[in-house]
């Protein structure tokens, strides 16, 4: 309820914060999303769904043959998103505002690619979201994801994450730092899953936030 009331604030705040978050997630985003430009072919358009699209942070990676359906729960992002649609000359087929847990407007087996970045930390039911992603993908469709979650095998860092959770929940629109992203993705049985794990280190010290999981799952 409180989070819903704060949606105009979250849309403005995240649109301001997003370039700064790139300092943490940029290397993984580049590794994961830059190869999308190689999928460009004027004769082969691809149906792409980006979930939790926010202000369109990933548009810089999309080639002209992508036909994009953008989905987010927060309709206050629309004005920031449309600015980036114009800036990056994106072909936006459809803009849907609904929860990713129940994407009624997206047909079964309709998408070549689903993209999500920094989504699963803040949805209410990540398992339902992952099942929905699998439902909307075509038979050989790919889900490309980059999500932050729980540290692997670092008890002190896990403790700090638990302590910070209430703060990130309030200022990050329901963001939890401690989700077991790899476990969640693997439990939904895609035909193949490739997950990489990265921590952020500065001066030889692992920062106690934002270890991330990124990769590709094929339906
Ligand atoms: C941390 S932001 C990430 C935005 C963008 N993907 C990026 O990488 O900068 C999380 C986004 O997911 C959206 N979101 C949160 N819960 C959602 C849900 N249940 N269904 C769809 N979108 C949701 C938020 O409104 C927000 O745009």
From TrEMBL:
Keywords on record: Methyltransferase, Transferase
A single GO BP: methylation
Domain of life: Eukaryota
Molecular function as annotated in GO: S-adenosylmethionine-dependent methyltransferase activity
Pfam families: Methyltransf_11
InterPro entries: Methyltransf_11, SAM-dependent_MTases_sf, Thiol_S-MT
rRNA-binding as UniProt keyword: no
Protein name: Methyltransferase-like protein 7B
């Amino acid at each position: 309820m409180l989070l819903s009331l704060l949606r105009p604030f979250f849309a403005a705040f995240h649109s301001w914060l997003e370039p700064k978050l790139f300092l943490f997630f940029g290397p993984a985003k580049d590794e994961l999303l830059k190869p999308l430009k190689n999928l460009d072919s004027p004769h082969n358009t691809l149906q792409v769904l980006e979930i939790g699209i926010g202000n369109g942070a990933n548009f810089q990676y999309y080639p002209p043959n992508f036909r994009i359906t953008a989905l987010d729960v927060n309709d206050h992002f629309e004005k920031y998103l449309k600015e980036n649609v114009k800036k990056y000359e994106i072909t936006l087929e459809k803009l849907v505002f609904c929860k990713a847990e129940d994407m009624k407007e997206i047909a079964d087996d309709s998408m070549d690619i689903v993209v999500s970045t920094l989504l699963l930390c803040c949805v209410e039911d990540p398992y339902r979201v992952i099942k929905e992603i699998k439902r909307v993908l075509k038979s050989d469709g790919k889900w490309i994801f980059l999500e932050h979650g729980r540290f692997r095998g670092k008890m002190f860092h896990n403790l700090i994450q638990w302590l910070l959770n209430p703060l990130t929940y309030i200022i990050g629109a329901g963001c939890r730092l401690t989700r077991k992203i790899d476990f969640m993705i693997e439990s939904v049985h895609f035909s193949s899953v490739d997950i990489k794990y990265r921590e952020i280190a500065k001066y030889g010290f692992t920062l106690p936030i934002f270890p991330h999981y990124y990769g590709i799952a094929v339906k």
